[in-house]
Amino acid sequence: MPMSPIEHDRRYGELDQVMRAYVGQPADDTEDGLSAALTAYLRHTWHTRPWALGTAEAQLREYARNPPGSLRLRLGEFYPVPDVGLPESGIQDWLLLIADHIRRSVEQGEVPPPSVPITHWEWHARFPELGQFLGGWFSQDMPDEFGTEDDSHGAAVADYAATTDPQIVARLVGELRELLALDLDEADYALAVAELGMEVDPPTPYSPSGWLATVAERLGTPRPDYGPGAAPP
Predict the structure, then answer these.
(1) Which residue range(s) make up the domain with 186?
(2) Domain check: are 14 and 103 in the same one?
(3) How many Å separate Cα 42 from the centre of its chain?
(4) Parts of the chain with a pLDDT under 50
(5) Residue 52 lies in a domain
(6) Count of domains in the chain?
(7) Are 96 and 24 contained in the same domain?
(8) What's the confidence (pLDDT) of residue 73?
(9) pTM for the full predicted model
């Protein structure tokens, strides 16, 4: 019988977060070094959910010591570890190695320093609402929905603002300002918006950071409520 969502989270929820950090990244952890994926997971989790590290270590170790058989995987009774490019015979040792690195990080206080995100997973973990905004409103389908005229980007921003709870909009504004505060080169801002799902260019004549700044200003300006029937002054 397949696991219920609460059972999945209780047994494998944080293990799943660790595995997601490895999507598209090599599982090249060694006894003496951490992969880019594990470094990204540790940095983000230390600075946002440090209490989850102990859970990750325990779930990784338990899974490695009691791996499921193929039948139980097919029945959905266990979490299937995604393909990370390692032979099946090496997965258990790799999971234990990751658990050891996480345990050492916690016990010795080895926290990766703040940094610009280094993996696709870390970009989305750090800027989740910005990923929703760029991936949802600025995909390659944007011209079909908002037209190809010069103000199509503005129409998409207006649609986001009109259809999104103001508290979520405020969260996006905070993420935009955090990204701009990183003070990256324009090439790095172009990479950032691409990692976060933007599949169209910023409108002319804006650079990526310039356009992000205009969006933050536009969405960060409160919309006054003049009351029923009242006209703006």
Answers:
(1) 127-220
(2) yes
(3) 13
(4) 71, 75, 226, 231-233
(5) yes
(6) 2
(7) yes
(8) 52
(9) 0.87
